[in-house]
Amino acid sequence: MSFDQTFQIAPRHPLLVEQEIAHLERIVPRWSDDGGSSLLGQAYWRKRVIDLTRCSELTPTQHATVQRILECVNTAI
To answer: Is the pTM of this model over 0.70?
Structure first.
C-alpha cells in the first residue's frame, strides 16, 4: 500500500490542526537540513504533510504553510 493513496480524512479540531502544523514547521526543516537522515524517513514525513493537506478545515494561510512544508519534504533527499 502506498503512502499517497487517498483515504477519507476525519474532521480535525482546529486546535489539533494548528498544533500539527506547528510541529511539522519545527521538525521538517531540521530533518531536511540533516540531509533527510531521519529514522522515520522521507515517506513518513511526506505522508504526515499530505494527510494534513487533505484536511478541509485548513484556512488559506494554513494551506499555504502546509504547501511550503510539503515542498521542503519533497526536496529533501
So the answer is: yes
| 23 inside domain | yes
| C-beta of residue 50 within 8 angstroms of C-beta of residue 5 | no
57 contacts 14 by C-beta, under 8 angstroms = yes
3-state helix, strand, coil in the chain (%, to 5): 65, 0, 35
Tens digit of each residue's pLDDT (9 = 90 or more) over 18-67: 999 999 999 887 766 665 566 677 888 899 999 998 888 899 999 999 99
- Residue 9: inside a domain: no
Which range marks the domain in which residue 40 is found?
Answer: 14-75
